[in-house]
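This week, work through this protein record:
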Amino acid sequence: MPVAPADTPPPTATPKADPRLGPRLNALQPVLDTKSGSEARATAVAQAAATLSVSRRTAYRWLRRYETEGIRGLRRRKPSNAGKPRVAVSRCFDQAFLAAGYGAGLLEDIRGELQRCLRGLWASRAEQAGAMEIGRLAEHALLELCEARNVRLPTEAMRLSRRYVDAFSAYRVINQRRNDRKAFDDGKPRIRRDWTDLVPMERVVADVKHLDVIVRRADGSTAWPKIIAFMDAGTGRVFSHPVLLQRGEGIRQEHVIEAFMAMVAAPNWGFPQGLYLDNGPEFAALSKIDGALQLLNAPGARTLIFARPYNASAKPIESLFARLDRQVFCLLPGYAGSNRMATKTQTLGRPPLPYPGDWEDFCRTLNGLITAHNHRPVGGARRGRSPESWFAQKVKAGWSPASVGLAELDAAFASHDSRRVDRGILKIGGKRYTHERLAALPSRMSVDLALPWRRGAPPMAKIEGAWVYLEPEKLYPARWIEGAKASSARQRRQSAHVSSLAREAPVIDPVELKIRWGARQSSAEAAVSQPALDLGETQRARADGVRAEGAKPPAPTEAERKRAQAMALTERLERQQTRDD
């Protein structure tokens, strides 16, 4: 049986190394037994091509390469331009540019300037208009770049692909940080905390909740009550203190002091070890008991923590309020919903009915529902157990109270995927992963992943050109400040990363660029005016004709009649509400 020539280099690939080589070699073996140029070889090649599901031309090419290179010739060859960009600007622009006889060096210069322009556009206010507007402005900037270098190409060649434009969309975070601080703040990397290892009353979270329930005051007027709520972070229990305010009044320090004293006097609650308070001025009064809180803690411990403004995600009581809205407050008679402009009513066209009982009855009902809620199982970190069961377990306990190398090799034998960064987190297979380098990347940036086949191996992400092992998201203990330090460090890393992006993106005024683009657009031909009308004589003649015929004004339509009835009903209701006030 013929084999590869003896003077060919020794094979560097074997059928065991590449599973595609074995079938190819087996199919070509009958061809090697035939004489070159014979009819038998042609028949054998056709049979081998059918076996491999390829064309006869491909089978002949593999045969020639095997006879000259040995088994290495059956491998799939790596293109000479593998790993290099094949398109500088766009296919149509590159083709037109090279066909016009301009050099490749000039094309690279235009490519670099265009990419700088795209970074600047995504970093400007134009990013709010979306990728299509960015692409339109970038195409005009490309035209200006060509004109500045005396490059004359047809306008049809100034086209950019959506993929090329989107490749620089990560720079839009610069504009968010400059002009949309809320969106930038929502995208910051954050941490989650594990509160379950706290003993009861070790950390109590306090906040004010506006209820969407209508009740009556003693004088018969209606009001929207509020509650001052305290959440025992260690067990998840909630203590509520309802407050019915007078007209124009808000929660003041006296209401907070009253609610705090009621919590301390309540059975199974008592005096807390530490407080996590909303940043509202009404909680400033609790600073006065800091000395007493210090007596229950180790020296130097933080006993009073005031939440940062506009940082609801850091307060566990906010998610508790959302559950209470769905599971408790909506059950109360008089519940009108969270949208005051579209309240839930019992009768169309009438205001919602208030709670049928008096204030004391409302408080008893509300507290009873809160007590029942404390017995409701909670998922997540609570593992399907109720706050009261956590409390009972900790009372029974006496109230006394987590790797690898060769990342590149591992990535070569892994399944590859990609994910978008979500505030320093990657969600993979229902689990959350993070890394210190990952925290520096802006949200919604796509990251390449490698999912190792090794059992138990963590996933990897390609960050800044290197593969790193991701770590499962860590839940920080609530009693110390390690979590706050980690959160601040992540945000500093991201801010430094955004600053480095900002240094790469020039400042471009999209307004001036769009004005220049608009000035280049072809304007429509001026419309031809019709002969002027003599409106005075025409209108006078029409009016005389109407008076002569004695025409009557048209009767109102059905829609106009219903609109007038609705307006009259609205005015009647407003007068009635004015009398009630």
Notes: The chain is about 40% helix and 10% strand. Residues 21-74 form one domain.
